[in-house]
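3.2 Worked example (two chains)
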Amino acid sequence: MASSPSLQLTTDQQCVADLLAQGVHALKIPSRSGLGLVVVNAALHDLRCMLGCPDASRAVLANLLIVNDLVDPPRVPPGPEPTLSHGQLSLMAAVATNSALKDIARASSMPRAQLDWELPRLFAATGSANRLQVVVRGHGWGLLGASSPNAAAQEACP
């Protein structure tokens, strides 16, 4: 497990953070961790607050946990890295840093209506079922994070 010198996570918070950063859906964390749903939800709330983003989506929270070295980086997903367009890379970075769909559209410079078309295309291109998996896989491939082509777009918390 990675650790940040400025933030100390409880054992439950670390467990939840690790599973979230592996792309495990929040509703499946209790069965994977042995923690109760109330404990998992409290840990997710506490993690969001500790990172200064109380309204962050799971995808944004996972990104923050990874870029702040609070969890080990995700493993590279099986199979070849997808070839993504510049627009898809921009959309991936927007998903990693924005929770609301209107903000994702704005950050990726597209009309909100176009996002309804582009987001499923990004899911298909990355083999992801949701925004959380897009972020986790993006980090696994090195497409998100400090050394990624989109590093400057990932700095702020929404």
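3.2.1 Second chain
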Amino acid sequence: MSPEPSACRDACLRILTARQKPGGPVRIRQQDSAERHGFTQSVASHALGQLRNKGILSERLRTGTVLIHPLLAGYESLAHMVNHLKEPEAFVRPLNFPQATSGLRGPRCPDRH
């Protein structure tokens, strides 16, 4: 039985965030990600593709290296993050999360009288 796609995607994201350098670059092979959680390389490839489609990851910088979205990446400090985002070559690409459907609502706030 193969694992749920969302479980694979979440596992890959946990590995990426744990192995990232400040600012979001991560050196990792699909095979490493797959072996770590016991799925096949094709499942890991699909999970990483889902993260790219949502904008969480950039396209590969070079073989074996991806970049986590600058707003989701880890930094050494708040000042380091601000300086990184101010750099002209820092591109904050849009995140691609689906809109909530009409059947979903946020939490209700208690009425205040």
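3.3 Remarks
The mean pLDDT is 79.
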